[in-house]
Amino acid sequence: MIHGCLHPRPVILDFDEPAGGHAVVSTTKLLLTLSLMTAFAYVSLVGLMYLAQRVLLYPGASATLAPEHANWGENVSISTPDGETLHGLYSQGESGKPSVLFFLGNADRVGNYGFLAQPLAARGIGLLAISYRGYPGSTGSPSEHGLLTDGIAAFDWLSLRCECEIVVLGQSLGSGVAVNTAGQRPAVAVILVSAYLSVLSLAQTHYPFVPVALLLKDPFRSDLKIAKVRQPKLFIHGRHDEIIPLYSGEALYRTAPEPKQMLIYKSSGHNDVWDDRMVNDVIRFLEARNRDAT
């Protein structure tokens, strides 16, 4: 007699997870999340720098004109071929004496150079300093093409106004404008203060984590243009220049053709390079050039 059914015991298959399985998955997700966040932050930073690069390169373009500083020369207006109007200050030189065409740094203002205009005027030497397009008193927006156009327009204006020999002087960002102008117009000499090999090389030095060569709009390749500048050249640079390192100016100097000379101020940086010594060095260079020409 069968009193009940036999129920087979259930077979339970127990597959244990490998030890630490949850930890492996969590760590992988965390690393992936961190990688995505880092990539997003990098792309955002690079994108922001790309969009803001001209604000960084041309900080003086956001300034306002300070008439109280415009006290060393005549206010002049210069028209460019593409329809912009440039503000400038001009001190007329004496007949038979050269005039200096001054291209400033990226955050500078034309009214700041009375200390240079006055000793030049005392020797009969003229001075024209221009405010780039988009800078105080000038129309337009700054760009490399625009500034190079401004340089040529200023040279042509000065050559008609004074009918004199013109020495081109460029400081910092303006050194690139000076190199381009002297390569295309008959300047008799060139003075380059705190000059760079190129803005491209400077940007690569300051932002090594950014693909600068692909993103930079205004490379200012003085290294590719200096060969055309065969006039006498004076390079001046501060040994402790923290913005345009001395090696960049020296590299441009080595690339430049003769005749040339370089003065290195051992105690100067970038923003303190102008002092009485430098004014005197500039005047000596100008007067020596004038003696050689006569």
TrEMBL record:
Gene3D superfamilies in UniProt: alpha/beta hydrolase (3.40.50.1820)
Task: Give start and end of each Serine aminopeptidase S33 domain.
Answer: 98-199
Q: Which domain of life is it from?
A: Bacteria
- InterPro entries for this protein: AB_hydrolase_fold, Hydrolase_4
Q: Name the species this protein comes from.
A: Phyllobacterium bourgognense
* Signal peptide region: none
This chain belongs to the protein called Serine aminopeptidase S33 domain-containing protein
Q: Which UniProt keywords apply?
A: Membrane, Transmembrane, Transmembrane helix
Which SUPFAM superfamilies does this chain map to?
Answer: alpha/beta-Hydrolases
Q: Which residues cross the membrane?
A: 30-52
Q: Is Lipoprotein one of the keywords?
A: no
